[in-house]
Amino acid sequence: MPGPAPVQANCKAWSKMIEFLLLPVALLVCFAAAVALIFYGLKLVYVIRGKHGLLPYIFYFLTFGNIVLGLTCGRNLSAVIDPGQVNANLNVELPPSPYYVMCGRVVTVLVLFAACQRIVRQLMHYRNKPDAPVLLIVTLWFFFFTNVVTTAAFSAHPSLEHYYVYLVLVGTASLLLNRGEEEISICTLRNILFVFLLISVAVIPWNLGLVMDNKYVEGIVPGFTYRYSGLASHPNSMGLITTLFLLCLWNHPFGNRFINRSAWIAGCSSLLLTQSKTSWIGFLLCMFCMGCFKHGDYLKRRLFDYKNPVLSILFIFTVMTITGTLLAVVMFGNIGGKIDSFFASSTGSSLMTMTGRTQIWEIALDEWRRSPVFGYGLTIWDEAHRAKIGMPMAVTAHSQFYQTLASSGVVGMAGLIVYVAALLWFTLKTAKSSQGLTLAIFFLLFLRSISEVSIAITGQWDFVEFAHLLLLTVIGGQFKLDSIKKANNALMTYQKFSSSRGFN
């Protein structure tokens, strides 16, 4: 039996051999990484110097940063005991990893470069009558001024951070997109969100607690205790992501039928597993909205086709069946007792209090009463404020109205109302040309604003801002398309009028 000395000698020999073999492998990997870096660097330069620039592709960079954050956060949703802890934002639960910090800086530089490139290019080619939505750009900056500038300077807790200007710059650049570039952005977001969903699913067998909570007891299906977050910060955020992905997928399907069906299966499955009722309702409303614009003319013809009245008869029969069922339930189903028992349960209590949000709203109102004009400040709901109020998991006011009122006061609320009104106006103007996509995204933001903060003007590159940026992107591209169509129609009318006068 060999003694310890020969064993140690063998170990040293093996370690030297491994080091000798690893050295060329490491050099080969470094060489391949350098070649790939040069290749993608040249590709990036080509994209920057190309016709469209880098702006239509920013969703690739933003989503990549969020994927890195989700993979390196180190959370374990299965180990959470208190259900309220699940509601915490991922960025607040755990400090970001050094990989994400480095990646986030690179993403920020690329995105800001893309935005500034587009703004500078537009200013260099500025005309007396620009075809950009100037009114919406002005109201966006008014929203920024009333919710960031005045709040940062005159609120009860003044503050100044460099990331306050990120979203307003990118939003302005998104409204300056050229005709057709919004389709590139839609396809970009569709592609990268599909990759995000696939990576989130691939993590399940490797680390279930990173993407799913297996102790959720407030779901609709009895006994099903799983709630899917994916690599997003929360199931509600995952519901927003999948809804946005499915809207982009319906607006611009994949060319390959197998990939398209797989994408629909992945999106719908992820949306169901989130068990987010708000996201489900938003998805149905958005799909109905887009369906009315995409197939409204066909349905109108079929409903009023008296020669072939199958669809109209089916529609009338369905309405009569649903109405009769509801009347029967109300008359003979003891509906009052069932409603009382439902609201006496934990689920009904959560519904009445919006899962504890009413307490957060009361705190937000208290902060507004202390500083009614300019609000508490942009540092509301930070770690110090949450420690003061004794609610460590309240990272936002869980309502766009209460968030703006508490942080920016009456001045900020005025800016929000003006901006939302302008956003709705341009949404309605571009709804038909976008096949209902802008109106569907606006509905999604409006519905989410009831219980979450959906129109943030400050913050980092989270998935929550994706819907807002995509709406501005589509409005910017479709507004130019509508302007071109109006100009062509006016030119054709003028030519017809001139030819008719010349003929006479």
TrEMBL record:
Subcellular location: Membrane
Domain (O-antigen ligase-related) ranges: 268-416
Principal cellular location given in the protein's record: membrane
Membrane disposition: Multi-pass membrane protein
The keyword Ligase belongs to this UniProt entry's keyword annotation: yes
A Gene Ontology molecular function term of the record: ligase activity
Alphabetical list of PANTHER family matching this protein: LIPOPOLYSACCHARIDE BIOSYNTHESIS PROTEIN PA4999-RELATED (PTHR37422:SF13), TEICHURONIC ACID BIOSYNTHESIS PROTEIN TUAE (PTHR37422)
Protein name: O-antigen ligase family protein
